[in-house]
Design brief:
Distance between the termini of chain A: 33 Å
Number of strands of chain B: 12
Largest sheet of chain A: 7 strands, mixed
Oligomer: heterodimer
Number of helices of chain A: 0
Strand content of chain A: over 45%
Number of strands of chain A: 11
Radius of gyration of chain B: 14 Å
Order of helices and strands of chain B: EEEEEEEEEEEE
Mean pLDDT of chain B: 94
Shape of chain B: globular
Low-confidence stretches of chain B: none
Low-confidence stretches of chain A: none
Helix content of chain A: under 10%
Amino acid sequence: DAGITQSPRYKITETGRQVTLMCHQTWSHSYMFWYRQDLGHGLRLIYYSAAADITDKGEVPDGYVVSRSKTENFPLTLESATRSQTSVYFCASSVPGALNTEAFFGQGTRLTVV
Amino acid sequence: AQTVTQSQPEMSVQEAETVTLSCTYDTSESDYYLFWYKQPPSRQMILVIRQEAYKQQNATENRFSVNFQKAAKSFSLKISDSQLGDAAMYFCAYRRGTGANNLFFGTGTRLTVIP
């Protein structure tokens, strides 16, 4: 199916474990993003990527790692999960420039760190 | 850094009535875009309406319209003839006109529609 998909939708993990959240888009959008959503903060940018093999930090990157070897995939890894990383994570994609300003979001992953 | 402020954590409206959600932002740039996203209980982020800063005319999408006041850095969303399906969390967001495409979000307003 066309679109942007995240997996898993729900994940429970233990403190200290490594966990990877997957994001896949079928549009070949050059930009991809990871946001986390927390009460009282809205959505905050963790990392973004302007193209394959190009990534950059956002507002809250500590404790996260990303990679983008292929345009369509942008996985987010929590190297050693902490309780403060309990959140809802959204992946998004968009095209650069002014022609299409909309960002398209996945359905989110609810991550609980116990 | 760009900041987006939504000062109303919760709002309620009677079905069929009109409600306005407030949003202000801070930027030193002249070229940018503003958005309202809706997030229903399904968690999906749905674009409601967008506004280009260079356009003076306020954007309208069916029952949704904005009041864009560039000098005041204000971008409010008006929902007319409110429906039960409008109940959701609404986020105001800002994007630079050039450079990285990431969005800066406000903290959201939870809208309740009363039957």
